[in-house]
Each structure stands twice: as C-alpha cells, then as structure tokens.
Amino acid sequence: MAERSDRAPARWRRPILRWLDAVEAGWAVPLLLVCFVALWTLYLVIAYAGGGLHPDTLEAWALGRNFAWGYHKHPPLMGWVTAAWTSIFPLNDWSLQLMAMTNAGLALFFVDLIARQFVTGHKRILVLLLLMLTPAYQFHAQRFNANAVLLAAWPLATYCFLRAFETRSAFWAVAVGCTTALAMVGKYYSVFLVASFAFAALAHPARRAYFLSASPWISVITGLSVLSPHISWLVTTGASTFTYAMTHANGNAVSSLGEVKNFLLGLAAAMSVSAVVWMLIAGTRLKQFPADFAAMNPSLRLLFYLAIGTIVLPVLTSLAMGTDLPSLWALQGLFLFVVLIVCGTRYPIERFYTVNVTVITAVVALAAIFVAAPIHAVYRNTHGYEEGRNLYAQAANELTRQWRELTGEPLGAVSGDDSLAFATAFYSPDHPHYARAFDYQDTWGVPRKATLDRGWAALCFRGQDYCSRWMEWVSGRAGHFVRREFTVQGTLWGRPGLTREVVVLMVPPRATSATPESAADDFGASRRTPE
Q1: First to last CA, the chain
Q2: Do residues 46 and 377 lie in contact, with contact meaning Cβ atoms separated by under 8 Å?
Q3: Which of 37-41, 114-118, 169-173, 232-236 is predicted least confidently?
Q4: CA gap 446, 51 in Å, rounded
C-alpha cells in the first residue's frame, strides 16, 4: 500500500509531498519549525491564559536582570538567555512563552544539522516529527529553566563534536570547546555530555587518529578558556552552585536503585509514542536491525557510543553517590536515539509513512490547541495551581497599588515566598528587584538594614506557614512596618475563578511618614496605616 500510494498519491497527500520534495531546496525544514513554534506557542497562550508563567521561568528572568558569571543555584545560561530575549521582546507572558518554544525550535534545527550528515530528503523530516511526538519539545520546553536551556545546547555541541572528530580541523575543535562550555554554563549535568564525548572518542575505531591530532587538545583548551570567568566566579564566591547541586546527593543504595529505575522508565515513557509510530513504519523490517547495526556508518557509531554514555554515566553516578536522577534531566539527549534509529536504517522509508506522521503530528498539535488548551485553562481557573501562579499578576498589582498608596513611591524591592516574589518582580508595573540575596535564597534571614531603609515589601499566600513565621520574625525586628491582608481572584476570559488570601508586610522608606504598627499586633490583621 505504501509503494502504491507513493506512485499514485491521493489528492490530499500531494501538497505534503510537494513540501517533502523541497527538503533539500532548503525551505521545508524551516517552514516545519516555524509552524511548530507558532502552534505550540498558541497552545501555551490558550492553556495558560490567566495562569501566569511557571516559577522557574520567572526565576530565570529575575536572575538575568543582573548579569553575573554565575548564580547561587544554577549556572548562568538561563538568566543570560532570558535577559537577552527581554531586551528585545516585551515583558509579558506570551513573549516568554514564545522564547521557550523558540528554544525548542532551535534545538530541533540543531538536530537537523546532525541528521543531514547521514540522510537526505524526507528522512530528515521524519527525525524531527518523531521528536515532536515526545513531550520534551513542548511540555518540558515551556518550563524554561536550567534543564530546558540544554535542549538546544546539547545537539549544537554534539554536531560540533561530530564535525571535529571527522575533520580534525581547528575550526571545529574550537567550536566543540565553545559549545561544550555553553552547555556547562547551562547546567552541570552537561558534564555527562562532555564525559560521553570522551567515552565515544575512546570507544571509536578511529580514536588513535583523533587523539594524536591537535583537535581534542584545542577543544579542551578552548573549553577551559571560555569557562574561565565562571570558574573564577566559583572560586571567589565559594562555589555555591556545587553546594546546591550536592543537595541532590543524599540517597543510599536502595533509593539510588529506585531513582535509576524511575529514570529509565521515565525516558522510555517519553519515547513511547515515537517508538510505537516507528514500529508501525518499520513493520517486519525491524528484523533487519541487527544487520543494520553491524553495518552502521562510522559517524553514526560515534553517536551510538555517545548516546550510551549519556544514559550509563548518570546511572553509574547515581548508584555510586546516591544522587537524585529524575528523567527530565536527560530529555535533551533523546534526539540521539531518534537520529540513530532513523538514520541507521539501510532500507528505504516510503514517503507514505512520513506523510502519515506529518498528519499525526499536526492533528496532535491542533487537538492540543483547540481541545486540550481551553479545557486546561478552564480547569485551572477554578482549581488553580499549588504554587498559585494563576493569581500572580493580581497579587503583584494589588501589592503595588497599596505600596504606592502608602508611600507615594514605586516599589523597589520585594521578597517573601520565592514564587510570589519573582512573580511580583515580573508582573508589577514597578518591576521591583528580588531583595533576598540569591546566595541566601533558601534561607529565611532578616533583610539588610540598607534594604529596609530604602523600602521593602514581602508577601505570602495565607497558609504558607513557613513564610508567615518568617514575616512575624522580620516584623519584630524591622522597627516600622505595615501589615495587610487582601484577597485576590483569578479570572479567565471574564469568568471569575478561585480566590486566595495574600498577606503582605511593607516597610516604607525611612523618609516616608507612616505610622508604624506594633510588632505585638496580630499577624495578618487587615488594616490601613494613616499617612
């Protein structure tokens, strides 16, 4: 049937076939990626209408407001990317949702750079379509953080490594050093990619020629040079990112086995739909897999060793050190397996199947936009999120209004519950700075006197006992403060949603004449301070 359809395609198939004919002309892949980014950005806009941005994305923006070679919890790439994006695009939800999906589209473009080294025509499209059927490039990507930023960094570094290994040229050697350094300042989990490069090169039959050339040593020197500002930052600041990373290494042998099991099952689940689709495409030809594997292209074999390293090395590390190992940390490496499977087949794949997968991928996207997204938005409007993100904008705007009413000045600094503080910095028209030093983000200390003197506010949702206790402690030491409580309500397309109570603590600037309230007053009492 597949061969007959390719010879005499149905009318509805012909536009898709003309598009597939244009792959090598250079416009088919960009068109696919633009459509992918546009459709899934639209999904995010609808699904999270009135829902606010994810706290991780807000944290990335808050970090990027102050350029640094490193930050307390994570390396700096996610902050740099967000700062660069918002220097051009407006500061609102759809803009950062577009940023997240552009990152995913860029990741798929870099995957295509790898795929085109081995296949041409519609097989390149098939690689991208199978990846689009995984959750990595939509649902994982929308939560822009230190994990999502690796979606583009890993395939770019892999492409450069592949070219450097094949050509031994100084240009590609330098490119490997730069791109692996970029991946490392995305997240230290990328050390497994770097180690897998070394493992793949050592396991490959051409290892002697590679290591006797200047290429690997140029890459090492370049990588260390590019990383040197971040390394210097680590040395001078006490390497807090490593301290934070090591909080994930508190397990034992039993817990590590559980982590490894869940890690492997999670990756298998992420690939399950694509795997089923591939089995339907290959059919009985799956039995040719051993022969195809034995005859694998030397460059594909390098990618095979690389793919094995990205799975085995984290597993061994988790078992040895008792580290956490969620599968979402490795989603950026799934492309290696899709490239290997599709590009490693020696038999032809009929275009009939690529057309079918194109339709499936389009139907999934359209169903997500017009069915799943509105349902999700309506459900979250009435049931909310644990972190309260559908109330972020309302809380930020009401705090800003009350602060200006109290002081007559813009709100300059905010802290409290981290998610609410990041959200207030983003959604408030004053865009106050997150006041707690990132070095102490996970501790609950008293703001510095200079911060209090300039004016400062904190906010929590009622019921967040850890935050409420901290507010009581701060209010007892602030000297002059105003405490208030207000109710915020979510809305979706004019329909009212759930409500939550917000407790705020405001310390007006010293120059502002506001009557301080006694620290002995009941915490959370709703009142206004006369000016």
Answers
A1: 81
A2: yes
A3: 232-236
A4: 31
